């Protein structure tokens, strides 16, 4: 597959994205350098092959962040109630309700026909993570809001304890299903990270929930929030590193543009927040500052992953190069008459 | 592979691999019509775009509103001023001017490259040249018209490739699998159609199509794509694009018959020495279980803007759910553990 006369032919795939007709202004990342310069591949005028998500920014990244915050807060709140830590209980329950209600608002606002949100509830489809997620979010939000109401009003406390546990049963799923939401797409950087994203989002949720606890619980009660937040931040940092390593070529979207800025900011916040939580838990102000940094780090991760996915979808190299490699691998393994790796499903 | 969620899915019950009858798989009773589709033979396409026009006319698809140059919607990509498939473009004719050194136009692999790229960024068409001269239309094209028509000369040959792209009506359709409202469904003809009165514009189908076909229309917020003229099928008519195609490049019919016709056509072309001819989307063993709309191409799929080895994203969904469930359990356990470790309880 070599050009006989390279002087006549442009280097394949060396495409000026500004020369490509942009698809309306709404796709982030259009016109940026989305290309892997070294990769040899052919394409149709350098145009994207798949369509980038039309999900709205900041609605969807914020929904992801709030869902994570709510999910881990609900378990924190239920555990704090069971172990007699009133201020952490209050923080967890309020965090769960605020996250769930806020997340629902962003999820509805993200729809291009928001008035039809309830159409989500006319079917339950396990093949659609958004359907499953709606069926997780709806009971979670109901229980979390009821729990928060009993917490604030101080009435029906027994009921509040029960609904708090019910919300906590859905909480961890709310925090991790969003990873499936992203990776169950044709977006290469998301799909190929389907083993990493659940851990990344789950640990990010732990950092956010723990951070929220550090901000709002008293020094006397905040030790579990501190441990959770530090463990979450460390796991998140390690998973992010592993994900970028394992993605190989597809990780280039994390190394340029806005995704890089967001991910760098996220790491800085997580490190600062974790260190602050480690040494500063016993002072109200330093605990609160660390908690804020951890929440910011968690949110920035979601924004970074979102941006990286848009850039990946817009880059034809992300489709063509890995798929060509897959074909080559399959041919190689057919020749040696072993099961082709990508036909194992058949 | 059979999906463990059969009981609830109400959509396709298998997630990947060959599937002889996706219609029955989607829950239609056994006496449904045969699966229909398109065979687009690009070797006879003349790029007239009758299919694009017929589709717009019959389906009342609005203006797609894309216009990079601000100048009659010209893209500067040869004679393709449509760009790509989308919510308001259900047939798209791709034009490739395949330039190669003179004398290499033999059989076997044809070295090919796209027209020269790089150069000046597009200018704003509304702005007159600063020196007050006349407007150079070519210069207003994106990239100064560098993608424009290539001409053969003593040193190089130019081969034209034209192909009318369309929704593939996949055997395992990513768009249909992920739709949370059930707006996307499989018809009794085995095709994939959006019900506009159900779609809530969540946009999940858009990045889940491995071919970049379906999109949300900004004016009405709904997702739209080729319906394979569902309404015409019901009345016993062939789809508008196939009806309008003057060269029979777009062939409509029962899928098994189209596949046989395509195999015969491929053998004929190979027999005539056109070794670069290949079928795309014909193989029921491929990553989407084969396409209802498949193609005969004269170059690699990516040259036409098609993914070379698409795989339906839901093939990996059982593993994703497993990972997410395990992580959720781990997160819950970690939070519980945070209350009991460290020995520093209730300081
Ligand atoms: S080509 Fe895309 S839009 Fe068409 S059926 Fe397949 S997944 Fe759906
Ligand atoms: S945008 Fe409409 S058709 Fe597409 S997945 Fe959402 S509800 Fe289904």
From TrEMBL, chain A:
Q: Which residues form a coiled coil?
A: none
Gene3D superfamilies associated with the record: Formate dehydrogenase/DMSO reductase domain (1.20.1630.10)
Membrane topology note:
Multi-pass membrane protein
Q: Quote the InterPro entries the UniProt record gives.
A: Electron_transfer_protein, NrfD-like
Which portions of the sequence form the region Disordered? 1-33
Per the record, the domain of life is: Bacteria
Q: Where in the cell is it found?
A: Cell membrane
UniProt keyword list: Cell membrane, Membrane, Transmembrane, Transmembrane helix
Give the stretches traversing the membrane.
62-82, 94-112, 132-150, 162-187, 199-219
Query: Which Gene Ontology terms of cellular component type are present?
Result: plasma membrane
- Here the segments flagged for biased composition (Basic and acidic residues) are 9-21
Q: What does the sequence similarity comment in the record state about its family?
A: Belongs to the NrfD family.
What's the protein here called?
Polysulfide reductase NrfD
> What organism does the UniProt record list as the source?
Actinomycetospora succinea
| Organism lineage | Bacteria, Bacillati, Actinomycetota, Actinomycetes, Pseudonocardiales
UniProtKB/TrEMBL annotation, chain B:
Q: Which PROSITE patterns match?
A: 4FE4S_FER_1, 4FE4S_FER_2
Q: How is the cofactor bound?
A: Binds 4 [4Fe-4S] clusters per subunit.
Residues that, per the record, bind [4Fe-4S] cluster 1: 45, 48, 51, 245
The primary site where this protein sits is: other
Q: Which cofactor does it need?
A: [4Fe-4S] cluster
- To which species is this protein native? Actinomycetospora succinea
This chain's protein is named Formate dehydrogenase beta subunit
Q: Which PANTHER family match?
A: FORMATE DEHYDROGENASE, NITRATE-INDUCIBLE, IRON-SULFUR SUBUNIT
Give the record's keywords alphabetically: 4Fe-4S, Iron, Iron-sulfur, Membrane, Metal-binding, Repeat, Transmembrane, Transmembrane helix
| Chain sites annotated for binding [4Fe-4S] cluster 2 | 55, 226, 229, 241
Q: Where is the 4Fe-4S ferredoxin-type domain?
A: 36-65, 158-189, 190-219
Instruction: Give any Gene Ontology cellular component.
Output: cell envelope
């Amino acid at each position: 597959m070599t050009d006989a006369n390279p002087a006549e032919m442009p280097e394949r795939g060396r495409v000026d994205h500004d020369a490509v007709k942009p698809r309306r202004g709404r796709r982030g990342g259009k016109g940026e350098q989305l290309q892997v310069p070294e990769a040899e591949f052919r394409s149709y005028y350098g145009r994207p092959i798949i369509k980038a998500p039309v999900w709205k920014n900041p609605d969807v990244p914020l929904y992801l962040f709030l869902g994570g915050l709510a999910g881990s807060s609900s378990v924190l709140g239920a555990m704090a109630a069971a172990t007699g830590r009133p201020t952490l209980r209050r923080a967890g329950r309020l965090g769960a309700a605020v996250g769930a209600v806020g997340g629902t608002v962003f999820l509805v606002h993200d729809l291009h026909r928001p008035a039809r949100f309830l159409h989500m509830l006319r079917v339950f489809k396990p093949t659609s993570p958004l359907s499953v997620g709606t069926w997780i979010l709806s009971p979670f939000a109901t229980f979390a809001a009821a729990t928060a109401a009993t917490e604030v009003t101080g009435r029906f406390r027994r009921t509040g304890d029960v609904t708090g546990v019910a919300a906590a049963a859905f909480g961890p799923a709310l925090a991790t299903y969003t990873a499936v939401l992203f990776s169950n797409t044709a977006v290469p950087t998301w799909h190929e990270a389907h083993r990493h994203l659940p851990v990344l989002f789950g640990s990010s949720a732990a950092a956010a929930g723990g951070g929220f606890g550090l901000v709002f619980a008293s020094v006397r009660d905040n030790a579990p929030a501190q441990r959770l937040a530090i463990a979450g931040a460390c796991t998140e940092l390690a998973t992010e590193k592993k994900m970028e390593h394992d993605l190989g070529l597809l990780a280039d979207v994390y190394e340029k543009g806005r995704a890089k800025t967001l991910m760098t900011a996220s790491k800085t916040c997580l490190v600062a927040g974790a260190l602050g939580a480690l040494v500063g838990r016993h002072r109200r102000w330093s605990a609160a500052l660390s908690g804020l940094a951890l929440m910011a780090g968690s949110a920035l991760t979601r924004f970074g992953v979102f941006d990286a996915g848009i850039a990946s979808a817009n880059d034809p190299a992300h489709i063509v190069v890995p798929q060509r490699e897959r074909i080559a691998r399959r041919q190689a393994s057919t020749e040696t008459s072993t099961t082709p790796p990508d036909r194992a499903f058949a | 592979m059979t999906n463990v969620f059969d009981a609830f899915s109400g959509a396709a019950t298998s997630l990947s691999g060959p599937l002889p009858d996706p219609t029955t798989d989607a829950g239609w009773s056994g006496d449904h019509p045969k699966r229909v589709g398109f065979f687009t033979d690009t070797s006879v396409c003349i790029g007239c775009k009758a299919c694009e026009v017929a589709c717009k006319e019959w389906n009342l698809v609005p203006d797609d509103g894309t216009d990079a140059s601000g100048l009659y919607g010209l893209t500067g990509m040869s004679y393709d001023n449509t760009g790509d498939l989308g919510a308001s473009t259900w047939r798209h004719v791709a034009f490739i001017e395949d330039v190669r050194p003179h004398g290499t136009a033999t059989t076997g692999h044809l070295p090919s490259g796209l027209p020269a790229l790089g150069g000046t960024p597009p200018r704003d068409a509304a702005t007159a040249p600063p020196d007050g001269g006349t407007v150079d239309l070519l210069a207003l094209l994106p990239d100064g018209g560098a993608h424009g028509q290539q001409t053969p000369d003593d040193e190089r040959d130019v081969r034209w490739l034209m192909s009318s792209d369309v929704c593939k009506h996949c055997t395992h359709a990513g768009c249909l699998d992920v739709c949370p409202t059930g707006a996307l469904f499989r018809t009794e003809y085995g095709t994939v159609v959006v019900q506009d009165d159900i779609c809530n514009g969540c946009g999940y189908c858009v990045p889940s199509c491995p071919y970049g076909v379906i999109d949300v229309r900004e004016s009405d917020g709904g997702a739209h794509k080729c319906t394979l003229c569902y309404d015409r099928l019901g009345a016993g008519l062939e789809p508008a694009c196939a009806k309008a195609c003057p060269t029979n490049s777009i062939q409509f019919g029962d899928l098994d018959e189209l596949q046989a016709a395509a195999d015969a056509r491929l053998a004929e072309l190979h027999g005539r020495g056109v070794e670069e001819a290949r079928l795309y989307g014909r193989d029921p063993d491929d990553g989407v279980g084969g396409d209802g709309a498949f193609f005969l191409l004269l170059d690699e799929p990516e040259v036409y803007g098609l993914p070379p080895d698409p795989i339906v994203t839901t093939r990996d969904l059982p593993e994703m759910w497993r990972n997410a469930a395990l992580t959720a359990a781990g997160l819950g356990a970690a939070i519980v553990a945070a209350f009991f470790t460290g020995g520093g309880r209730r300081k």
